[in-house]
Specification:
CATH superfamily: P-loop containing nucleotide triphosphate hydrolases
Order of helices and strands: EHEHEEHEHEHEHH
Shape: globular
Strand order of the largest sheet: 3-2-4-1-5-6-7
Strand content: 5-15%
Distance between the termini: 26 Å
Radius of gyration: 17 Å
Number of strands: 7
Largest sheet: 7 strands, parallel
CATH architecture: 3-Layer(aba) Sandwich
């Protein structure tokens, strides 16, 4: 699909003492492939799409799934993170391509799970969006709880539901017990499904990026439990 895999050379692994040693579960031999495609998309920049992709892919890999991430964003934040990922961590395959490569995702068959990152404003690319909708088993629409963010993602969810896409909101960078969070939940649920667990605002989630890690891979880091719970929701929705 015109993908450009990054060079295989990687930096040395970070100090093992800082890594939560969680080897992947052994996969049964000759397991048949039932590929699932998890897409994250939002018209709003800064909603947490790439952070979501990184951490969900990491958790899936630790659970013994064969995982690949696809970076359609020209900023290549996901690709740069992948290039820093230590070889000691569970393997995640990687592809990057221009958005017009979306039509060829179906050719990637050798994985249990494809997790796709998209650029902001993807609804302005209707042909590519349609191609992604046709292959996606689930679409996660991350959003911060503020009104400006919701004002952007609510019409997008209506767009997805009008096209019978299976999609759910994910509240990101939240603070528990606030009136804003309660208001955000109510307004989003009025439009479409909402992941029952949100991602709280923890600095540890962002500080793992320079290491090429997910938050569950750093001992004592806050935020891992949130992503694990979100993964349980996704796993059940996808039937993995």
């Amino acid at each position: 699909m015109g993908e450009i895999p990054l060079a295989s050379a990687r930096p040395a692994a970070v100090d093992d003492a800082s890594i939560l040693d969680r080897p992947p579960d052994p996969a049964p031999p000759n397991r048949p492939r039932y590929k699932k495609v998890l897409l994250t998309a939002s018209p709003k920049g800064g909603s947490g799409k790439t952070t979501f992709v990184k951490n969900v892919a990491v958790i899936a890999a630790h659970n013994g799934l064969s995982v690949a991430v696809i970076d359609f964003d020209r900023q290549k934040t996901l690709s740069k993170w992948w290039a820093r990922r230590p070889e000691t961590m569970p393997r995640i395959e990687h592809y990057e391509a221009p958005l017009n490569g979306a039509h060829e995702i179906g050719e990637l068959d050798d994985y249990d799970l494809l997790v796709i990152d998209t650029p902001p404003g993807i609804e302005d690319h209707p042909a590519e969006m349609l191609a992604l909708l046709q292959v996606a088993d689930l679409i996660i629409v991350p959003t911060r709880p503020g009104w400006d963010d919701r004002e952007s993602v609510i019409p997008f969810m209506r767009y997805l539901r009008d096209r019978h896409a299976k999609a759910a909101f994910l509240l990101n960078a939240t603070q528990k017990g606030t009136k804003l969070l309660d208001e955000a939940r109510r307004s989003l649920l009025a439009v479409g499904p909402l992941c029952p667990i949100d991602i709280r605002q923890f600095i540890d989630i962002t500080t793992t990026s320079p290491l090429g890690l997910g938050v569950i891979e750093v001992r004592g880091a806050s935020g891992g439990d949130d992503f694990v719970s979100v993964w349980h929701f996704i796993r059940n929705e996808l039937g993995l």
